[in-house]
Fold this sequence. Notes:
Layout: H1 3-18, H2 42-58, H3 70-74, H4 95-118, H5 122-143, E1 146-147, E2 162-163, H6 165-183, H7 203-220, H8 228-238, E3 249-252, H9 265-272, H10 282-290, H11 299-302, E4 303-304, H12 315-320, E5 367-368, E6 396-400, H13 402-416, H14 422-438, H15 452-468, H16 471-485, H17 490-500, H18 525-530
Antiparallel strand pairs: 1-2, 3-6, 4-5
Helix pairs in contact: 1-2, 2-4, 2-5, 4-5, 5-6, 5-7, 6-7, 7-8, 7-13, 13-14, 13-16, 14-15, 14-16, 15-16
Amino acid sequence: MSTKYKISIAICAMFVLLGSCESVDLNVNNDPNNASPDNSDVNLLLNGAMLNFTSWIGEEDEDNREGFQAGMQVVRMLHMFGPLYENAFEPGDFDDVWRQSFSGHLSDIQTIKKNAIENNLSHHLGVAQILESYTLTVLVDYFGDIPYSEAFAGAENFDAALDDDAAVYGIAMSLLDEAIANLALSPASSISSTGDLFYFGDLDKWTTLAKTLKLRIYNNTRLVDSNALAGINALLADGDLIDSASEDFTVFYGTNSSSPDIRHPQFINNYENTPSGEYMSMYFMNLLVNGFDSPDPRTRYYIYRQVDEYPPADAQGIFDFPCLAESYPTHYVPGVDPFCTSIGDGYWGRIHGDNQGLPSDSDKITTWGTYPIGGKFDDDSFSAVTKSSGMSGAGIQPIMLSSFVYLMRAEAALTLGTTDDAAAMLEAGIRASLNKVINFDSSINSPLAATATNIDDYVNEIITDYGAGSDAEKLNIIMTQAFISSWGNPVEAYNNYRRTGMPLNLQPTQTSTPGAFIRSFKYPSVAIDNNPNINPKENQGVKVFWDTNSTNLDF
């Protein structure tokens, strides 16, 4: 496909998101991705980089079914096939993640930075640096050492060497500092409101995001960075962190289903492309339904039950729901670890590492609900989902939310002794998450919708337990709420679990000997096959630099 048509489609997609679409006439002889400062439109380049970024962070397609969703699977938010950690994911599962970053928006950003510097476009430069910084940290979080210093030399060097993961994190932090400075300058022109897919030209929100991503880095590296406490306290004193839903960093999706399809990828996969092969984790559903005195108020918004009962243990029933013919694993703790029908009421999922095939259950399994994919609220209607169900895919991809930030601050206050009050941050984080989720679809008018009393009772239970707990118990409460609040964001849940080993008591894998937990993922096939400087890892137990947590996760 020519550059002209790729960019035209991208621009059309942007305007569909904003409510209109118009044709863009580009000179076919000019290649925007290899433009010089004389012939480039940096607004167009930045918009293209944003579109590529949204595809990278949220895409799940038939050829790359895992992507970043793997992070949700290993921590039991979604079901992970197995039965061993070693064979749960293949290098090819991450090819698009690698390709779309290095050949996609990271490559675009190098052109943007060059052109922005030469044309005094410091705001474009700052936004590009923020996207670059976040991308680098996420790649490190998943893979460890990655190419960077030699990665964009083009024909001069196709075999970029790996950079140390800690060094790349340092580069990411520097990019954020530079971005904050650049956004404060007065350039020749600023970014356009229509070309900014995230904050619609609001530079203050981009600056707030940059400072919040610095907090994320400090918190992620608090086990190895002696400057983390001072760094976080400086950010708290500055007072410019994401603290309201209006500042949330998310990808917005719509309802248009063709030319282009702008619905949430998980909606497409689970409401239209069936069977999806994607099961809800028994552990996560049980945590929501039975983990507290009453179900978590987010339960009916997070997950949707297509049926309210399980099949009989006859031939067809066992084919659809194989666990009916299986025994409760002997290494599970009765009353703690859910299995098969133990949750009740049609919560139909799979346990961690269940490697059964795909039966005829696509219209029966529990699936994603309203939040964040724009699906259906669980109103006890117990009907199969369709492409017109619920919000028809008008969801979001949560990247950095105010709830995440409050709960990070709670963790840092408890573990590092920052100037924040941990209990206050915990409550603020829970309420921010509940408010966002419960108000996500304003059209819900059901007697089963969460009420103010439901919310207050839930919050009060957690805060009471927190006040009565030891420091270890308090941290587990914070991390459990961070875990639940991160639904839809696989990166933060995976990072939090490796850093703290919490939530405690995650459901064991179906087999009692699953091998080493995935402390970092295998390098993608596209990286190993095309770059002799990237070799397969010895195993997936290789830790990223900030993961010095000694908790045994191999279960």
